[in-house]
Amino acid sequence: MNSPYSVTAPGGKVRLLVMDAKEGLPSAFALLGTTAHEKVAIRLAGGCKGMGPDDKAQMMAFFKEAFRGYVGLVWSGATRQTTKAGAIDPMVTDVPGIIAAENQGCVALGTVPRVEMMTLQQESRLVLDQYGTFPNPSMLGILVVQNGADGSLDWDGDVKTYAALMNQWRDCGGFKSLGLISWNGGVVTKDEIIMSIKQGWVTVLITGTGRATDELAAELKADDVAFGGKYNLPATWATMTHVVPKTDPSALHNILASRGFIIE
After folding, report:
1. Percent of the chain surpassing pLDDT 90
2. Which residue, 46, 65, 154, 184, has most beta carbons within 10 Å?
3. How far apart are CA 118 and CA 60, in angstroms?
4. What CA–CA distance (Å, rounded) separates 185 from 192?
């Protein structure tokens, strides 16, 4: 596998843009999304807490198969982590780059909140926090969302921005379908899932992955009427929400095809 720091984005460079959360959406970043071959967009939400190396390898294989033939926009958070040995420690945030590399015409983007002052370390390596988290170099573009020049955000500080961008692509960019797929994840992922359903996006929960995704899927399965009432969901929410086991990438592929994300 490539060095964690090697830029594998198209053209050998990642476009890095910084915006203030209080300001309007950056048109330069929005335009990057419109370069996808098909005007469809899918956000990947979640995390990998509690997952071992075999689980992460299975996650990568799952998405590669499920997204076979996808040539739209796929995006997520924009971070990368390494193992203690200095190799890539695969996360959900590595999935968009893998999908784009497998499907010509697909565009991978990412967003990240500025949670503290960014620094240059070692051989001019950009570091996002005190734990050594760094930008994912497999994405065509990364949008850094900050709270003013001297402010900071929590790790959910980019959620409102990416939701607004999704809807802008639909309302102004001619995007035909919007979706969110969740894998594992914590409190922020739970909020993203509910937000996606309320936005009317196609929402897919991948079960067997743990934590927030499994918790919400279990609630839904136990009593979908109570689920809709608890989260104050719109009347049509169930027609846009799907649950797929992590052992069946073909099921996700078929959903994406039936919803117009993949043209077969």
Report:
1. 91
2. 46
3. 29
4. 10
Q: Is 16 exposed, middle or buried (0-12, 13-18, 19+ CB in 10 A)?
A: middle
3-class SS of residue 180 = strand
CB 140 within 8 A of CB 107: yes
What are the start-end ranges of the H helices in the chain? Answer: 27-33, 53-66, 95-102, 159-172, 187-199, 211-222, 224-230, 249-258
- Using one digit for the tens of pLDDT, what is the confidence trace for 62-112? 999 999 999 999 999 999 999 888 899 999 999 999 999 999 999 999 999
Assess contact for 4 and 130: CB atoms under 8 A.
no
State both tokens at 151.
């402010």
Q: Which of 29, 3, 5 is nearest to 143 (CA)?
A: 29
3-class SS of residue 130: coil
The DSSP letter of residue 11 is G
pTM reported for the whole predicted model: 0.96
